[in-house]
Amino acid sequence: MRLKIAAARINESLKFLQAFCLLGILAVNVFAALQTGEISGEVEAIRYKQFVNDTLRESKLENFDINQSAGAFLLSNEKEKIAVSRWISPKRTRSYPYERVYDTLAHPGKKVTIIPVVKDEGLGGERDFLQWDTISLLSLLDVHVVLAYYDDAVKNTKRADQITGQKFDNRYVAARLNEIFDFKGTARQWNERESKNLKTVFEKARLAYRKISRETKTYLHDETALNDLIGYAATPQKFIEFSRRKSRQAQAREFVTEQPKEALATDTKAKVTINNALFGKYFFTCDETKIEPSTVYLIEAKHSRRSKFSGKNDIKDGLVKMMLYTNLTDIKIGKQSYGLKVQIRLTSNQLKGSTNSDVKDEEIEVFLAANLFASADKTFFRKLFLEARENKFTIILEHAETANLKKL
Questions:
Q1: For residue 405, what pLDDT is reported?
Q2: How confident is the model at residue 243 (pLDDT cuts 50, 70, 90)?
């Protein structure tokens, strides 16, 4: 009898050990998949409701100057109004360009964004180039792209090896905007046509920066990389391939960038690669991920040490990612399919406790009151939480250490 009991216990232990090993293998495979950047998904179309977009001020096309305009605005001629945003740099991770794009997306008419194809700050600063999939992503968002260039700047008085105050060629930009007023096709059709002008606009930028260098007596970056880019731009497919190599490299760099440890509820970053029907391929890095047996969580983390929450421009930048993530289908880690849940986690050292967009309104109001939110900020978060509910993602607002405890 004792031998039978012992054998039964050994058998049960072996079963437990086998199950534990299988879970361990699954966890290792998931972790390995995340570390090698194998989260992928498809986007066919964007369906999204906005609630925190700013009201845009109106400007007239007559006497218009892009260099004097707001970051996002309405532009009108005698017949219609278009919503316009402008980028400071072609690099999408600098200066929150998607926050300005976000504010134009609620406009029922044409949406436009103006992007410099190159920005060279001088040998002591950065130099950024336009990536192909920026154009493709904006096509997906139904935004017309105007490819532009800077043709004026001044020497940086604090840094002799840099320039500042860069200005677009306003006459060129105004002419392109006038064309968009008359254009009858879709944003995608406009952008496909515009992409055929890439080589020409890069060449205009090269000539303009030579002039700026002479006039400011400032050395800019060597032209070799720009010349190579002009060569690639002559053949669209070569430019796409070159641009995607650069995007992958940027994704890899962002993947190893550290977030503040107190801001994260998990320690696992992930690379997210998105494909769409417009032949776009987007390389993002998600701040946090969490894996359940059949669900992967993609979590954007925004941390503030001194304020109660990140800047609204930073939050809106994250909302553009929500537009993509909430419309993802065919989610996979490696070859295994998963369901998807999406979150934005807003953490701060200045907050007490935690709340989120999924709880009752009464609980949210108690949290906002306890943390002494100003009236305007309460209104913003009510709208933000409504936007999360309508688009089926979650906003979490909590003290940084509360997020940190969730790791335990």
A1: 46
A2: confident
Beta strands in 313-385, from DSSP E residues, in sequence order: 329-333, 336-337, 339-348, 354-356
Contact 316, 52 (CB under 8 A): yes
Quick one: 383 and 240 in the same domain? Answer: no
- Of 230, 249, 268, which residue sits at a domain end? 249
Judge if 187 and 300 occupy the same domain.
no
pLDDT in tens, 311-329: 999 999 999 999 999 999 9
Domain count, the chain: 2
Of 279, 318, 316, residue with least CA distance to 300: 318
What local confidence, expressed as pLDDT, does residue 249 receive? 64
Q: b/e for 295-318, b at 16 or more Cβ within 10 A? A: ebbbbbbbbbeeebbbeebbbbbb
Q: Do 322 and 226 belong to one domain?
A: no
Sign of the CA dihedral with 383 first, then 384, 389, and 391 last: positive
Tokens of 20: 């534990």
> Which residues touch 294 (CB under 8 Å, ≥6 apart)?
338, 339
pLDDT in tens, 116-156: 999 999 999 999 999 888 898 899 899 999 999 999 999 99
Residues 168 and 299 occupy one common structural domain: no
Domain that holds residue 168: 58-249
